Amino acid sequence: MRRKDVTYRVYFFVVMAFLLGVAPLAVAASTTEAVARPDAWWQERNAAVNERVKEGNVDMLLIGDSITHGWDGKGKPVWDEYYANRNAVNMGFSGDRTQHVLWRLENGHLEGISPKLAMIMIGTNNHRDNTAEEIAAGVKAIVAKLRATLPDMRILLLGIFPRTDVEEDIQWRLEEATAMFATAASDDPKVEFLDIGGIFLDKNGELMVEDTMPDKLHPNQRGYELWAHAVEPTVARLLGETKWTPLFNGNDLTGWRQMGGAQDTWGAENGQLYTDGEGGGWLATTRAFSDFELDLEFNVPAGGNSGVFVRATDSGNPAYEGLEIQVLDDYAPEYAELKPWQYCGSVYSLIAPSQRVSKPAGEWQKMYIRYEGSKIQVKLNDAVIVDGDIADFKERASEHPGVLRTSGFIGLQNHGSRLDYRNLRIRELPLPGN
User: Fold this and answer.
1) Please, are residues 377 and 410 in contact by the beta-carbon 8 Å criterion?
2) Most exposed among 222, 262, 281, 402, judged by the fewest C-beta atoms under 10 Å?
3) Are 295 and 227 part of one and the same domain?
4) Segment (H or E) for 305
5) Does residue 227 sit in the same domain as residue 332?
6) How many structural domains does the chain have?
7) Is 2 among the domain residues?
8) Domain annotation covers residue 22
9) How confident is the model at residue 10 (pLDDT cuts 50, 70, 90)?
């Protein structure tokens, strides 16, 4: 399955259905009217969740269907690592649709508690009986219910995960629904939308079935690891935690994906993330970030060259579609003619460092990047060398569109030489109005 703009396809099916005089979907139960399910196991699970809620000490809710329910199964080891110590309650029920979630929220799930955060991922089970508009309306109704009942709680609303166990028109419908309910976060500072579906896709945009979703719908343990890793910086911020979150686990490329390139040149060993050899693409985080602080260490060999991309897109040259913070051995003879905006630590082609503080090739060096709104700061080896405003370069947007971007991927550049990175970590900054 490829994650791409599907609006024109949905529009085509709706128009054709109208011209042929048939309804694109059968009339179905409302997605916004609360309905209980009669299944004995469902009633028992509902009672168990309500009993847990009555105990109090609830800081986080995970609300959804079987995909969320799976935190009790394949995702349990990951749950124990990320959520067990956060007083989290799993409110995922297999097979639930939006109307079933609404009933649960109205019948005990929210009584007497004051959680800090709810993470919602729901809607996929409405896929056959409801239009994209109806699915989106159901998700928005859930958000509205939570906001009305728990006005101080923050909400992390996730896009519907990709799936390939259904026909393509249904896959498109779910993507269209996600685009529609994402607007629930537009005007409410307590609600944030995050689409992490890309974590389950390979560099060609296809679902990694064997690695993450063996049945083409439900994550395996690896899938839950990717999910938790992707949302962790946002979860930590929304819970009011000030901790830094690792972007690299020191063991493998969890949370990263190579973009382009004829060769696979990225790997992990001895706690280091490295690239080696020519013909490789750049390495990108599997989710986008807006405002953040990024901390890392790098080791560049003699004559080595690389860069850190921020707010990059998944197509085109990330140095211009986003921004590049230069990483290279700028004292090497082959770089004797460098322009100031090419020195190590510069915002490539835009802002030169105020001083040159890079260490000799072969030594570990520290880099810190803070990007908030249009303001960017770069520290190299604890010295502030860039403190500028990217808004000053708006007139260069035609050649450097990255100056206008407000979010995007963080990435690392392969430039043909060996480059080692370690201790990569991030801390998200509150969005404007939050």
Assistant:
1) no
2) 262
3) no
4) strand 305-312
5) no
6) 2
7) no
8) yes
9) very low
In this structure, the answer to whether residues 193 and 225 fall within a common structural domain is: yes
Query: Per residue in 154-195, pLDDT tens?
Result: 999 999 999 999 999 999 999 999 999 999 998 899 999 999
Q: Look up the domain containing 133 and give its range.
A: 7-243
345 close to 324: Cβ distance less than 8 angstroms: no
Mean pLDDT of the residues in the chain: 92
Spatial distance between the Cα atoms of 369 and 201, rounded to a whole number of angstroms: 28
From CA 30, how far away is CA 239, in angstroms rounded?
A: 33
Check: CB of residue 322 under 8 Å from CB of residue 405: yes
- Judge contact between 177 and 139, C-beta under 8 A: yes
Distances (CA, A) of 288 to 233, 292, 322: 11, 11, 12
pLDDT digits (tens, 9 = 90+) for 222-244: 999 999 999 999 999 999 998 99
Same domain membership, residue 346 and residue 211:
no
**Strand 256-261's sheet: what is its strand order?**
256-261, 280-285, 409-412, 305-312, 323-328
**206 and 268 fall within a common domain:** no
In a domain, 391, yes or no: yes
- Give the global pTM: 0.88
Closest CA to 348 of 290, 400, 288: 400
> pLDDT at position 18, please?
38
Q: Which residue has tokens 């973009």?
A: 259
